[in-house]
Amino acid sequence: MSVTVRVPAKVNVQLAVGAARPDGFHDLANVFLAVGLYDEITVTPADGLRITCDGPDADQVPLDRTNLAARAAEALAARYGRSPDVHVHIAKDIPVAGGMAGGSADGAGALVACDALWGTGASRDELLEICAELGSDVPFSLVGGAALGIGRGERLTPLEVGGTFHWVFAMAGRGLSTPAVFREFDRLGEGTDIPEPVASGELLAALAKGDPDALAAAVSNDLQPAALSLFPELAGTLAAGRAAGALTALVSGSGPTTAFLVRDPEAAAAVAQALMSSGTCRTVRTAAGPVPGATVAGR
Ligand SMILES: C[C@@](CO)(OP(=O)(O)O)[C@H](O)COP(=O)(O)OP(=O)(O)OC[C@H]1O[C@@H](n2ccc(N)nc2=O)[C@H](O)[C@@H]1O
Ligand SMILES: Nc1ncnc2c1ncn2[C@@H]1O[C@H](COP(=O)(O)OP(=O)(O)O)[C@@H](O)[C@H]1O
């Protein structure tokens, strides 16, 4: 018997970042939108814990116990007093170290898959608690849709979304380390007064209305200057997407994936084509959101 779980990527339509906390993390007002780019996690009983991965970025995924999917299986097994004897296979389509929460998706997916395989029957709150221990973005990968994350981004409030938003994503030739981008944010902000992060009323209203023009006017990412500082070539990608008619262009989370909001699937195809021929990125994908979080796709 095996269980397969499908988990989406995310884009941050608002990422407001406060000053570094004593524990090194930053308080956020993090507005997540789950988009239809997916990793698929399949778990099968095995003699011990084993991770395998396939997909275009598979060679960049750690297959040891640092993999978030392995950590998720171990955390659930420990809580229920059993051995994590499971083979976790990751069919990876979400870019690695791209600011789209691919590792977090695999953590949430492995958790839901092992819970179903082992018949653990963990409550939603228990699963969310384990997710928050695994990483700040992991709870959102479990719930999907759209949500405001406060604290480290792990304390979620679901958000109403009044329509489907269409996106183009440009994947970069290399990754960016999330801690390095937060460190650069700290460096750039040295000596300045960093305000408390708050969600934008205009942005939440635009999401609720499903209005792409209003959303385009309201998106923001406080990590974008830091990502551009570490990866200046991204400015060229953002400019190419804007010139091709995107309603707005921004870095997704800590980057380096860049996200382009467009009005409809036709505009998405045109912007994707223009970005591809601009030579400013490795590859281009289109996806719409919101979509549901980690979902059992087969057993
Ligand atoms: C920036 C965001 C935006 O959604 O995503 P990505 O762009 O990485 O996908 C997240 O905050 C990333 O969340 P996640 O990747 O789960 O981070 P974690 O494993 O919890 O933390 C990794 C490191 O990032 C920094 N970190 C993370 C979250 C936070 N609120 N403050 C931080 O300073 C810390 O240096 C921490 O050690
Ligand atoms: N299942 C996983 N998939 C991808 N990366 C993982 C995974 N588990 C751990 N990692 C590590 O986490 C780092 C960040 O990965 P990822 O979640 O893809 O990016 P981001 O945090 O930018 O969204 C990777 O470089 C890798 O070392």
TrEMBL record:
Keywords: ATP-binding, Isoprene biosynthesis, Kinase, Nucleotide-binding, Transferase. It holds the Pfam family GHMP_kinases_N. ATP binds at P95, V96, A97, G98, G99, M100, A101, G102, G103, S104, A105. Its EC number is 2.7.1.148. Belongs to the GHMP kinase family. IspE subfamily. The keyword ATP-binding applies. The lineage of its organism: Bacteria, Bacillati, Actinomycetota, Actinomycetes, Kitasatosporales. It catalyses: 4-CDP-2-C-methyl-D-erythritol + ATP = 4-CDP-2-C-methyl-D-erythritol 2-phosphate + ADP + H(+). It is an enzyme of class 2 (transferase). The keyword Nucleotide-binding applies. It comes from the Bacteria. Pathway: Isoprenoid biosynthesis; isopentenyl diphosphate biosynthesis via DXP pathway; isopentenyl diphosphate from 1-deoxy-D-xylulose 5-phosphate: step 3/6. GO terms for biological process: isopentenyl diphosphate biosynthetic process, methylerythritol 4-phosphate pathway; terpenoid biosynthetic process. This is 4-diphosphocytidyl-2-C-methyl-D-erythritol kinase. Residues 203-275 form the GHMP kinase C-terminal domain. GO terms for molecular function: 4-(cytidine 5'-diphospho)-2-C-methyl-D-erythritol kinase activity; ATP binding. The active site is at K10, D137. Residues 67-145 form the GHMP kinase N-terminal domain. It comes from Streptomyces luteogriseus. Catalyzes the phosphorylation of the position 2 hydroxy group of 4-diphosphocytidyl-2C-methyl-D-erythritol.
